[in-house]
Design brief:
Elements: E1 2-10, H1 14-24, E2 30-33, H2 42-45, E3 50-52, H3 70-81, E4 88-90, E5 93-97, H4 100-112, E6 117-120, E7 124-131, E8 134-142, E9 145-156, H5 162-166, E10 171-172, E11 182-189, H6 196-211, E12 223-226, E13 233-239, H7 247-265, E14 273-277, E15 288-289, H8 297-301, E16 309-313, E17 317-321, E18 325-329, E19 337-340, E20 352-354, H9 363-369, H10 372-392
Parallel strand pairs: 1-2, 1-9, 2-6, 9-20
Antiparallel strand pairs: 3-5, 4-5, 7-8, 8-9, 10-15, 11-13, 11-14, 12-13, 16-19, 17-18
Length: about 400
């Protein structure tokens, strides 16, 4: 079976979902392919508690998102579902608490309003056909049946740049020893006397276990985050994964061992149990597909603006170092940098864009651009740019600027 789509988006995480809505709103035939059965990616499956990167970091609590458009729209819809979940400050940054079921409901609402949008769940990409500098076809599979999709523009929102690599795009990948720590989240129920001191005790006791060589070194960087009710907490485990297929299983075993150790040592954990976990290990770093520009650490820390800047971001460079734990490098308070469109436009291709974690940035810059708030707007701008390409033959309607919500 062969079908045609003006805009084909691969990956239904935060960036893919917003790209799909933005493109469909332009009146174009839009197809979103997602390997899971639910939209939302790590934003849903990761048991995360906050959306980071939505706001400008300043002295007063922000009353609007740094980027307009779908960032504002999604926040408004989330606020209607859970009015009690408002902007809060954690350390030096502002975040938005959210419920993953609320996020799922928001995307259901946005998707149901778009008659031009086709969503293929539980569907994987099998192969990509490229001729010259254009992708001519993408073969996908669902329940053993394969389909050929002929796209006008492809947007790779897979996080690891899987479709771009299939098409032969160049990419950067940090050496294994420099890759950031991955994450695995345990939702713990049955906690007693949860307070701020317990949050400090968790890394202290895990460090004790590491010193005694009971647990591997990286587990000392794990943290406890409060839940929505007094007996609930989210144990955010830091783990290392490699190309070894057994490393993921070892990481999950280590996480369970960490909970067991805490249950043996802390009264508050004594009767606790694991109610649920994130769906697998969540990698913070993978392939970065080479675009026409690579955003750098210097660009971020100097709050650089670009003629083709499409997304504003104020989130610090947040590196989960394997030996030192979390390292932050902040932009000057009250300022922001821009992500240029050239970071999304895959080098050597006329009809391939990236959005989300796999855009063209350096290892250090990825520590800032990968957060959900930025990915919402990256997806939206990729969808708008793809629509421009189909309608007008050019991603840029003016010399160096895409119509954006700044």
């Amino acid at each position: 079976m062969k079908t045609q789509s003006d805009i084909l988006i691969i990956g239904g995480g935060i960036s893919g979902a917003t790209a799909a809505v933005a493109a469909a709103r332009q009146g174009l035939r839009t197809c979103l392919v997602e390997k899971e059965g639910i939209i939302g990616g790590i934003g849903y499956f990761g048991l995360l508690r906050h959306i980071c990167g939505l706001y400008l970091n300043k002295d007063s609590t922000p009353d609007r998102t740094l980027n307009k458009g779908m960032a504002e729209e999604i926040v408004s819809l989330l606020n209607k579902l859970s009015p009690e979940k408002r902007v809060r400050k954690i350390g030096r940054v502002y975040v938005l608490p959210y419920s993953r079921e609320d996020l799922r409901s928001v995307f259901d609402t946005l998707f149901n309003a778009e008659s031009n949008l086709q969503v293929l769940l539980n569907t994987t990409v099998v192969s990509v056909k490229k001729t010259g500098e254009e992708i001519r076809g993408v073969t996908v599979e669902n329940s053993g049946t394969q389909y050929d999709i002929v796209p006008g523009v492809v947007i790779d929102c897979t996080g690891n740049g899987e479709v771009s690599v299939m098409a032969g795009a160049d990419f950067d990948l940090s050496p294994p020893e420099n890759l950031q720590l991955a994450g695995y989240v345990l939702r713990i129920k049955g906690l007693k006397d949860y307070d701020e001191t317990l949050r400090m005790k968790v890394p202290f006791y895990l460090a004790e276990a590491v010193n005694k060589k009971i647990l591997p070194p990286y587990l000392r960087f794990s943290v406890l985050i409060p839940g929505d009710v007094p007996d609930e907490g989210y144990l955010k485990i830091s783990v290392i994964v490699t190309n070894d297929p057994e490393s993921r299983e070892r990481a999950i075993t280590d996480a369970l061992s960490a909970h067991r150790y805490l249950s043996d040592r802390l009264d508050s954990f004594r009767d606790s149990y694991i109610a649920s976990t994130s769906k697998g290990i969540m990698e913070r770093e993978g392939r970065r597909i080479r675009g026409e520009y690579t955003l750098t650490e210097e660009d971020i820390l100097s709050a650089r603006k670009f003629p083709d800047g499409i997304v504003r971001n104020s989130w610090p460079i947040e590196i989960w170092d394997r030996n030192k734990g979390t390292i932050y490098r902040y932009i000057e308070k009250g300022d922001y940098y821009e992500i240029p469109f050239r970071c999304l436009k895959v080098r050597g291709f006329k009809n391939l864009l990236c959005a989300g974690r796999c855009i063209s940035v350096s290892h250090e810059a990825l520590g800032s651009t990968r957060v959900m708030g930025a990915c919402i707007s990256l997806g939206e701008q990729a969808g708008i740019a793809a629509a421009n390409k189909i309608k007008h033959g050019n991603y840029l309607l003016s010399e160096n600027k895409i119509p954006i919500h700044l």
